[in-house]
Amino acid sequence: MYQEASNTNLLMLLHTAVYPFIAALIISLVAGKLLRASSYLGYLGGFVVGLSLIHSGLSFPPNQALDYYAVTILIGIILLLCLSLIKTPAITNSALFLLSGLSFFFLLNPVLKHTGFMMSLSWAVISSLIVMCYYLISHKTQKPYQNETRSLHNHLLPIGLMIVAGCAAPVVSIGGSLLIGQLLGAFAAAMLAYVIVGYLTKHAQNNAFVPALLILGGLITQSHVLADIPLEVMLMLSASLFVTPLVLLFTNKISHIMASQVVISGIISAFSLWLIWPESSLY
């Protein structure tokens, strides 16, 4: 019995962290070397690997809410291209609002459709507005990349998202859905590989965090809508997304920025665990 539990835990670890990390590492290297500015495909590929392993019923065209992450990834790539190629703020902001709203609608509607179209639309609009706030704040902190320097400044926003996902994973796993908790872990592992490769190869791209923000935002909102994580916990996890871009407005010191994100995300995670911890034993 203990050996079966050990094997199950090992398989869960491989699917949640190891395989997504390795896949993101390889894809980031290949994409970064061949396509130069598209190494963000690494974390997307790593997350897809984790999604296919963790969500065994993954299908395309999508049948379930989790299947729509494939659509979210496509929307994220299209949105990133729009932000890179279009220089008119009004158009880029409109594209950001509409496409991110579409992504959230697809992720949440399969669960909310029994409550009516307006409920799904409302969730999509509110979630899209949060994404827009994050983007507008972070846009003020982004500077032209200097490829000759191996600076972590180029990757602070992805690192912030990675920390939020890593701290949210145990909360969602214990309090609502092991499946979504594992996907948060896979996302964090894929982001870690992307950041490592980007730092070592000096490859970075403005707004590369945007597809990641759609994925992580979808996982956090689904943790409430799909997995019954309390609304206040979902809101605290969502608020923790803003730590890195807000601190970046006031300081460029990497240690201060990362420490702020780790400490605040850790406190929110600990408090959330206290709120949702089951009365009965986990075993």
UniProtKB/TrEMBL annotation:
Record's keyword annotation contains Transmembrane: yes
Entry keyword Protein biosynthesis: no
Keywords: Membrane, Transmembrane, Transmembrane helix
Parts of the chain that traverse the membrane: 12-31, 40-60, 66-86, 93-111, 117-136, 156-174, 180-201, 208-227, 233-250, 257-277
Protein name per its UniProtKB record: Uncharacterized protein
Organism: Marinomonas rhodophyticola
